[in-house]
Design brief:
7-stranded mixed β-sheet; 0% helix; 50% strand; mainly beta; 11 strands; 4-stranded antiparallel β-sheet; 111 residues; single chain
């Protein structure tokens, strides 16, 4: 059984950085399949970042150049490094693996 647990969220000011972690357990052949999504207030859940098959990553246009998806090969952990955060990045952030969602973590960007 797969379990995903997000951590690292919180309240930050515009322009600041934050790194989220997704700790995975269970039957996961590779953490390269873990993706990040977010759900802003009053909006639908949206794709943010995922690893691609050629060793890089794909990002939503809204976060390209500011967010990075990373993974630790020695741990079952995937990170979302977020920099130059904006108020519109305020959302609940989720990690996802093959129809399994984490519980989500709140990120609030506000002055």
């Amino acid at each position: 059984q797969v379990q995903l647990v997000e951590s690292g969220g919180g309240l930050v000011q515009p322009g600041e950085s934050l790194t989220l972690s997704c700790d995975a357990s269970g039957n996961i052949p590779s953490t390269s399949e873990i993706r990040w999504y977010r759900q802003p207030p009053g909006e639908q859940r949206q794709f943010i970042a995922a690893f691609n098959r050629i060793g890089g990553a794909n990002y939503a246009d809204s976060v390209k150049g500011r967010f990075s998806i990373l993974r630790d090969p020695d741990k079952m952990t995937v990170y979302l490094r977020m920099s130059n955060l904006r108020p519109e990045d305020t959302a609940v952030y989720y990690c996802y693996f093959r129809a399994v969602w984490g519980q989500g973590i709140q990120v609030t960007v506000s002055s």
